[in-house]
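Teaching note: in complex prediction, the entire set of molecules is handled at once rather than each chain in isolation. The prompt given to students was simply: 'Predict the structure of this complex.' The entities are:
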Amino acid sequence: MKVMFMAFLAIAIIAVGANLVLKQAGFSSQERTLGANVQLDN
Amino acid sequence: MLRAMIALILTLSFLSTASAQSADAPDRSATGGAQTVEDIMLRQRGEDVDNSFRSGATGDPESAAGISNQLGTLGGASDPELWRAVRFGSADTIASNNGPGATVLIQDGGMRWLNFRAGPLATYGGGLLMGIIALLAAFFMYRGRIKIDGEKTGRKITRFKAIERFGHWLLSGSFILLGITGLISLFGRKFLIPTFGHETFSFLAVGSKWVHNNVSWAFMVALAMIFVMWVAENIPHRSDINWLRKGGGIFSKGHPPAKKFNAGQKLIFWSVIVLGVSISVSGLSLLFPFEINMFAATFAKINATGIGSIFGFGDLREVLAPHEEMQYAQLWHSVVSFVLMAIILAHIYIGSVGMEGAYDAMGSGEVEEQWAREHHSLWVEEMMPEKSINAVLATSVKSGPVTVAPAVAAPKKVGPKKTVPKKVAPKKTAPPAK
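The expected output is the structure of the full assembly:
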């Protein structure tokens, strides 16, 4: 059971980590396709 | 007057091209080159209409009037012609945002995709999953839980180490999350909005998409782990033929011998690897839109084999619009996922409810020895050479049940020990003296 819970925890860590890493690296669709004239985040 | 002249010139040019086509080309002179009643009826019957009469009618800049002349600013293309060019992707469009899909305003093939996704994909995919669940329920009612036939020894054998179980649960936990969130993406709008309303569904759908996109990385890592750990023991073996011939023993008495993984488990392993890799690759294509385009190249390779002419469907298109690539990727991803979900439902069944003692393998990693002897007899003999078995038996008689760790130096190629008695040649006795 312990190993199962550790695996589930690893899923959460990998998911959050992947999201942060990819955002930092500028891989989001928003980052790649938004035109300079659009101000969605402001 | 000039507009009428242009219309007449265009009509005549369509007439000449119509006569240059094959005899099967429909006659559109009645409508001056536009669609006819026959086209409308074909479309209403759901049949294909050859749209080249429209995709080709996008104006002619060569015959444009001078800029200072009447209609000169139209540049040789009327508004309908301009919108046809936009629809069929031949317009020269400049967009203020970036990316390969940015200049596509109308995607003509998109409706076919949308109808397929909401129609056959949802119907047959959902039907497959419901069907598998019904089949498993029927099997359980007929066969019941597969029990351990012999008497339990109370001794355990280590079947899976911690790292193996970790890899399995990483894969299965992520697969469950991906499956549920994937089904929400496909069916959510139809079934969850009526139940929960738009606001709640929106929150659920945004969360579901985040989970699906990010948990996919855990799935891919786990897939690699599982492959590396278990590929050697999932190579087909001659005992698999006998196992398959006897249906794994699920419909009969007796247990066909098997090594660490029986043929059924090997089928599951290879299904997960092959389908999992396919889902991962199409998923990566969807995660990074318009960047990983594989269908055009695949269609070109299929065309090169000539399969199209054998089966009569002609060549597949080798030039695909950016959105078309994404649509094919989504369809492939969904279809393969449905197949894998159906297979995994059967795997979950047999590993939990379906068979006594099976869950322990992944739960604690330690299985009842009698279970192992019945379902993986060849593996038990590899793990426990005769010496250790006798020692354990001798110990257990005196001190009760013990946990048996596998022998460290167990030879891997030990086959089943034959117990054929030694042939003793009869003693030659001298004939009695006369």
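Point out the following to students. The mean pLDDT of chain A is 87. The interface with chain B takes residues 1, 3-4, 6-8, 10-11, 14-16, 18-19, 27, 29, 32-35, 37-38 of chain A (CB under 8 Å).
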